[in-house]
């Protein structure tokens, strides 16, 4: 090994998360990456794959049994990464062996008991080795806490933290993950709710939560290290919650029903069902998607003492979701290789790097993130859903969407649209034929939103725009029996209306059947302007119009 290279031993390299972490670590030319696990053949297959991709790191393999870590010392590692799991019920034997071998230690632990005891168990070995020992370098609790740090910069108080995660049904899952969930499902979970530490059953209180980019999904109370980290690090006045969910409602609610067997003491644990339930989830997977996500929502008071809400969201497409839990570990290994963490200690991967650094290993993957901010008690709809971003908009945009008084404006618009069924749809909704039209817009505030009337010559198009009842960062426009959900994305001269979902009355409609909506309101030259385009994959352009208003 070259003196400039450092050896990273990745244990569990062939697992769901380990293989993805291996691809991230193999990007560095100053690394000798040792792929380690109990069986040699899968390791050699992964080594061959990395060789074909021309990864710049030097790649080798080694058989290492986490339960008998005597082989670590002979490998002379600089960092040992444990991606094997499960961590529930584990002691400090393996991380202690890594430290005794002269290595830093990083793991992807999501087990609450393991993470809670980690600092105390490893304090003496860390001091003796003068090496870092970092646990929970994964989605939980690393990304959760980094998101809260990012969202609450400058806040004076945190009242509520509500985090959730939902993988796609087609995402690969190891049996150990299913076993870990079944270990606490239906059992007692200590949680901070309504300002008190209490006990609730695991996988209880199923509820629907908005996951940006994914829509509404079911979640239930999950036993994760976040429940401790969120309470102790941020001291919220009301709640510190973490939920997990299965994409397919029958599977999620089915597990909730099974958890009742343990709650009613008909079964001591659900773990014996792990193999059967894992197989069932695999059979049902084609009914779901390969899209997963995570969301962290915080409520409190901003720097001026005003109520504020903020949400960080991540969603992954095309099966990229399992890369997310590996990213914080890759970021921690990079920080150790670059000597960027300071004096060694033992603890959770919390406060060691900003959110952007933990997400950096995901660059180039079909994974997106977003931050939304809202002002829950602002007087108008758009000031509420845009939060502090509303105050930065141009004056004419703020005047039009302040929501505190009835506003009537005149102007002109150029309309366009297709023929046939598209023309019929326009006529039924009161929309104009293609061409130039005089335009009058009336916006009347009402409880929870606004009523809009757009008069194009002799035709009037009416709609109600209301706050989403279950999401303070979204709003909905209702036209006849159809309701369309949007979120507002601000930019320097205005904001865009980003279409998220639609429904017929209370019935959600498939996204594939929905329209494609592009809408924005903005200022140019001190004048309020707008552009709207609604198209449909079957009908083509239904209507579009652009123009300006004054008054």
UniProtKB/TrEMBL annotation:
InterPro entries reported for this sequence: DUF4166, NAD(P)-bd_dom_sf, Sacchrp_dh_NADP-bd
Residue ranges annotated for the Saccharopine dehydrogenase NADP binding domain, each copy included: 8-109
Pfam families assigned to the protein according to its UniProt record, in alphabetical order: DUF4166, Sacchrp_dh_NADP
Ranges where the DUF4166 domain occurs: 393-549
Name of protein: DUF4166 domain-containing protein
Organism, as annotated: Caulobacter hibisci
